[in-house]
Structure formats: C-alpha cells, structure tokens
Design brief:
It is a single chain. This protein is α/β, with parallel strands linked by helices. It is built from 26 helices and 17 strands. The longest helix is centred in the middle third of the chain and has 23 residues. It starts with a helix and ends with a helix.
Length: about 625
C-alpha cells in the first residue's frame, strides 16, 4: 500500500491538505520533521499514515489523557490497531497493554511523557522496533512556550536509551519563531524538514465585545446557538462556578471543569461534554490542549486570557471539523487586573534559575500587553493574530467582528480634558500619581471611604463624569493611554501625564476616538428572541436530510458508547447530505468515509437516506 491508499482506505479522503504530503514524505524518507499547522488541519495524519507504512511501532507523546482516549477511539474506529498508556489505566489494563506490545499487536501507541521515565517501560521499549516517535503539542518542550511542561524534557532522555534512533517528528499549532527553534534544539532534530502551513483558520469568526453585563450577554450568545456545542473559558475557578450555576439556573445545560474538582468529577463532566449530554463546558484553562471534540461550534471567553498564544489555542478548539464556528471574547478593563494578578502569583518553576524566572515574568507581562492590544484594536482581529505569529497576510479579512462592524470617529476632547485635569488635581493634592480606579471614582463622585479620607471629594473635578459608567470612563482612559496622552507606570500601575497631555489641556488639541456604531453581528437582535425561535432557526439552517443523518449518528453513538463525532464528523455528514449516495460505492465517495466505516455504518446511513427520499417523494 502507499500513502494515498492509506489515506482513502482508513481515513476516507482522496487528497492531502496543505503541508501533509510533504511532512509524510519527509518521515517516510527517514528525515526528522517539524510541522506547525493550525488546529483542525490534520496534524495527526502526518504521523498516523507513516506509522501504517513503516515497519514496527510508532510512539506518540501526548500531554493529555482525554486526547489519547479520543485519538485511540478514532483509530480503532477506522481499523487501526492502537492503544494508550497513561495513569487512567488500572494495573491489570496496563499489564494487558504491555503483553500485547510484546506480541507486536499495535502499530500506534500514545504515551504520557511522564511514563518515559519508567524503568519498566524503557526496558520494554528497548525490546521493540520503534520506527517513529511523534511529539504532539511540541511547544510544551520550550520554557518560552505557552504550556511549558518539564515532563516533556524526559523525551530526550528516553530517546537516548533506545538501541537505535527512530525518526523523530514534532507537531504544534501554536509556536512563535523562538519556540520553533527551541523545539529543534531541545529535541535534537537532525536537519529537520520544517513546514509552517500558517496560523489562519478561515472557518473561525473572531469577535471582541464589551457588554455592560457579561452574564446577560453570555446567556444571549449561547441562547442564539441553542443545541450547539461550545466552551466558555473563565480566568478563575470562582468564575467557572458562578457562570456554570447561572447558565444552569437559566435552563442552559452546562457542566464545569477546573483543577479544584476531584479527578472523578472532572472525568464525569468531561464525558458529559464529549458525549453531548451537556452541550456547554464552562472551564478554566485546566480544560487544556488536545481537546479533540470536533463539533465544538463556539468558544466564548468570559475573561481575557493572559496571552495571544493562550487565546489562539483555546479559541482554536472551535471548528475542528472545518465547519463555521465563532470565537468571541467578552472584554472588560477588570480582566487586565485579573491577568496581572495571575501572572504575579503564578508558581515559580523550580527548574529555572531566579534570573530565568524573572525573565519569564517579564515575558508574560509583555504577552499580556499584546493580548490587551488585541482586545482594544479597531483593526482586523484575524490579521492581529497573524501579525503576532509572524505570518504575512493581505487585506483585512472582512469576516471578523471588527471588519463587519462600523466605527465612527467620536470627539471626546471634553471627556479627555476632564480625565487629564482630574489626574493633575489629584497629583497636586496628594503629591503622587494614582491608578485608573481611583481616578474613575473621583470623576464619578464616589463616596468610597478612601476618597473621603484623602479629601478628594473637594476637588473641582469630583463628580464631573457621574453620568458616565465606570466601564465607559475606563475605555476613555485606555484610549488616552494607547494614544500617548497618558503613561501607565508598570511598576506602580499609576496613570501619569505626558507631553501630549498639555496639548489637550492648554493648546486646543482635539481628541477623536473610534466607537462602534453598529452592534456586533453575533449579538444582533438576540435579546428579543427566545429559545423556541433559536431552535426553529437552527433547524431551518440545515437540510432535513442532514438532520436525519445527525439523529442516526446520535443513536449509533449512544449504542456504541462513543462521542458522536467518532462515528462521523459534522463535515462528513454535511458532505453525505449533499451527495446523498444510493449505494456503497457512492457512499465511499463521501469525504471522511473509509472502508472500515463504510462496512460498519454504510447500510444504516444508506437506509436513512433512502427513507428520507421516499418520505419527501424524491426520486
């Protein structure tokens, strides 16, 4: 067999996606490779196909138990002999896997990086013919990566203990140039074939919103996507609990995931989400990389992440099946404070020196600034992400919240003068600069104890902007800082005047700020619609045949005890509904249908298609 036969027979595709064929050819020629490919672009096939063509065993180093289970279930579903080894196995199960390894019963084995340090496992692997080692989520090996994991350093030690060096391949979706070089250096990739197919995910719609009430906005956004599967990311465990409780109280089936839950509850909640018993997962970033649920149609960030790497990785869990999906970030000025607190109080990595730890903190603050810039930009959001990862692009995408919104330049000279004058008077009164929160309180006429103790209620600027909301004043301050009229001292988080401030206060310079004059597409008209209307709208958006095929898939998944997307992805069902095959040969022409799945499910799906056509009078 060749790579094309494997691609069709097992995975049901006839053509390779960008980058796949070159990486496969590189591995088959015995060359180390590094592949940087967007989530959902088919990284797994780049090592799975060579694994089926090469003699011996392929080891895949993977960071999460859930990812291994999903990948192995998918491989078994298409007839590939595969297994995983991690802490979820009982001793009896582990012994059974080891015995089958000795019998050469597997082609692909997924392994947790921690297992590579086990003497028993190393001895077993020294007896095997290992042709290929694939490192998934390879950015974890770099201390400059978003998810540095010291356990990944065990990979190099393990490889050095093998009797003969295997071909080494590394894959990731999120790696800056510095992290890519780290992967090559630390893994000691020999003259690797490096392919970066890009970071763009055209099927994802990006949007940033600043709602007055996040919880209300969140309920509206999820209500608009009634019946669809999605993830809501929160910055803290407390926020997860609060959001999850609120959604359930309003009739939205949500479950939760964070590090404070027991292992048993995390597994149970993740299964509820994976098997679509609960359509919404509310989680911290502990619900991490490698989530292989292909039918996630939206990811909403209730809080801003600490970096664009984290955001791109988490948002990228939407639309893995290639279908359109939404990535919406609900931003508030308080998110910046929360992110700074999390950076400052993150546990130090004991494997790094004090100087390196300080450098990591400095890097994290710089990344936070870039993440904040994404939230505040009025330019193309997609291009902002591509710029960050160093990918060239052309014109604005015309398919993100900013590109689809209308901005109007609004004169805020008077508001700017009030803010700058207030900062001047507070400085004169106290003898030092203060932060944005205190300035906002003075401008809104707050009766806060500290305001009164400092006698700031006697200033001429006290209460000048009481008609403005706290968040609106925050937006003005953020804009003035971004335009250079204010300087935010990073050491003390204080607002300080600049030379440009005087131009507004004393020289008549005007200030104009872009303000969204049209609502974000994802929120238009939602507040007036109820659950029933959303259900009708979603049903109308897809054909009756596609609905019937999804119903059959759900029934089969329940009977087999597997997530629905393991049977067929949404993209495969959409192609099936479009082609409406009438026999097994036409069924095999559906994208994503291989020989094993055709033999297993062909009769049932062909029957559903025939029944639908007869019922609708279609010949």
């Amino acid at each position: 067999m060749d790579k094309f036969s494997i691609l069709k027979q097992y995975f049901g595709h006839t053509v390779f996606r960008p980058g796949q064929e070159s990486l496969i050819d590189g591995i088959l020629s015995g060359r180390d490779v590094l592949g940087v490919m967007p989530t959902g672009s088919g990284k797994s096939l780049c090592y799975q196909i060579p694994a089926l063509l090469m003699p011996g065993l392929t080891l895949v180093v993977s960071p999460l138990i859930s990812l291994m289970k999903d990948q192995v279930a998918a491989l078994l579903g298409v007839g590939v002999k595969a297994a995983f080894i991690n802490s979820s196995l009982t001793l009896k199960q582990l012994q059974a896997v080891y015995q089958r390894l000795r019998e050469d019963s597997y082609k692909i084995v997924y392994i947790a990086p921690e297992r590579l340090a086990s003497d028993g496992f190393v001895r077993l692997m020294q007896e095997q013919k290992i042709s290929l080692v694939a490192v998934d989520e390879a950015h974890c090996i770099s201390q400059w990566g978003q998810d540095f994991r010291p356990s990944y350093l065990k990979i190099v030690e393990f490889l050095e203990k093998l009797p003969s060096p295997p071909v080494l391949s590394a894959f990731t979706a999120t790696a800056t140039a510095q992290v890519r070089q780290d992967i090559i250096d630390i893994l000691k990739l020999h003259a690797p074939l490096s392919i970066v197919t890009g970071f763009d995910r055209p099927n994802l719609f990006f949007d940033v919103q600043r709602p007055k009430n996040k919880m209300t906005a969140l309920r509206s956004l999820i209500g608009a996507r009634y019946g669809k599967s999605g993830i809501v990311y929160c910055a803290t465990r407390a926020a997860v609990e609060r959001v999850s409780d609120d959604l359930n109280a309003h009739g939205i089936g949500a479950t939760r995931y964070h590090a404070g839950l027991s292992d048993e509850e995390r597994r149970r909640n993740q299964d509820d989400f994976q098997f679509d018993r609960k359509p919404v997962m509310v989680a911290t970033n502990a619900f991490g990389m490698g989530i292989d649920k292909s039918n996630v149609s939206f990811v909403i960030h209730y809080n801003m992440p600490k970096s664009l790497e984290a955001y791109y990785q988490e948002a990228g869990r939407a639309g893995r099946d290639g279908e359109k999906a939404d990535c919406i970030l609900l931003f508030a000025a308080g998110d910046i404070t929360t992110a700074k607190f999390l950076i400052q109080n993150s546990g130090d990595n004991e494997e790094l020196s004090a100087a390196e730890q300080a450098q990591v903190k400095k890097r994290d603050y710089r990344r936070l600034e870039q993440m904040t810039g994404y939230c505040k930009t009025t330019g193309c959001l997609r291009n902002n992400i591509l710029d960050y990862f160093g990918q060239n692009h052309e014109d604005p995408c015309e398919n993100c919240g900013n590109c689809k919104s209308t901005y109007t330049m609004t004169d805020i000279t008077l508001e700017a003068q009030m803010i700058l004058s207030c900062i001047t008077r507070v400085k004169h009164q106290l003898g030092y600069y203060v932060g944005a929160t205190l300035i906002g309180q003075v401008l809104r006429g707050s009766k806060d104890k500290r305001i009164l103790e400092l006698n700031l209620d006697g200033l001429s600027t006290y209460g000048l902007m009481r008609q403005e909301s706290r968040s609106r004043i925050g937006e003005y301050i953020e804009f003035l800082a971004g335009e250079g009229y204010l300087y935010t001292n990073p050491q003390y988080a204080t607002l300080e005047l600049t030379e440009q401030s005087a131009k507004v206060l004393f020289q008549g310079e005007t200030v104009a700020m872009p303000v969204k004059s049209s609502p974000s597409p994802s929120l238009e008209g939602l507040k007036k619609k109820g659950k029933k209307q959303f259900t009708q709208r979603n049903a109308a958006e897809e054909s009756g045949l596609l609905t019937a095929l999804k119903a059959l898939r759900t029934r089969l998944a329940q009977e087999e005890g597997v997530p629905a997307y393991i049977i067929f992805s949404n993209a495969t069902l959409a192609d099936m509904a479009s082609k409406a095959p009438h026999n097994i040969y036409e069924f095999l022409e559906v994208s994503g249908v291989g020989e094993v799945k055709a033999a297993r499910y062909g009769e049932a799906f062909l029957g559903a298609i025939a029944t639908y056509e007869e019922g609708d009078g279609i010949s």
